[in-house]
Amino acid sequence: MVKQRRDLIIIGALLGAVAGAMAAVILVQRAEEAQQSPKLTAGDGVKVGLGVLGLLRLISEIGSKK
After folding, report:
1. How far apart are CA 9 and CA 26, in angstroms?
2. Within the chain, where are the H helices?
3. Domain residue ranges of the chain, discontinuous segments joined by +
4. pLDDT single digits (tens) 2-53
5. How far apart are CA 23 and CA 31, in angstroms?
6. Distances, alpha carbon 51 to alpha carbons 9, 47, 56, in Å
7. pTM for this entry
8. Do the Cβ atoms of 28 and 39 come closer than 8 Å?
9. Which of 4, 45, 52, 59 is the residue whose CA sits 20 to 30 A from 19?
């Protein structure tokens, strides 16, 4: 059980890192296309944060279904 838990945490951390890197690449590419520096406003940060919270809620509901 401990090994399974550790493996799941490692996989989740790796997936999160990959998703974050992909998001950063997209943000930089869009800024380069517009010939601007990458910008993330407070409103954008709130949107991203709420999206992440929604995703975490979905994942927790999947894990609790029996």
Report:
1. 26
2. 2-33, 42-64
3. 2-64
4. 999 999 999 999 999 999 999 999 999 999 999 999 888 999 999 999 999 9
5. 12
6. 21, 6, 9
7. 0.71
8. no
9. 4
Residue 58 tokens, joined: 């979905």
Query: Is there a contact between 38 and 28 (Cβ–Cβ < 8 Å)?
Result: yes
Count Cα atoms within 13 angstroms, Cβ side, for 65: 5
Dihedral-angle region of residue 64 (phi above 0 means left; psi in -120 to 50 means alpha; beta otherwise):
alpha
Q: What residue type is assigned to position 40 of the chain? A: L
Nearest-angstrom CA–CA distance, 48 and 43: 9
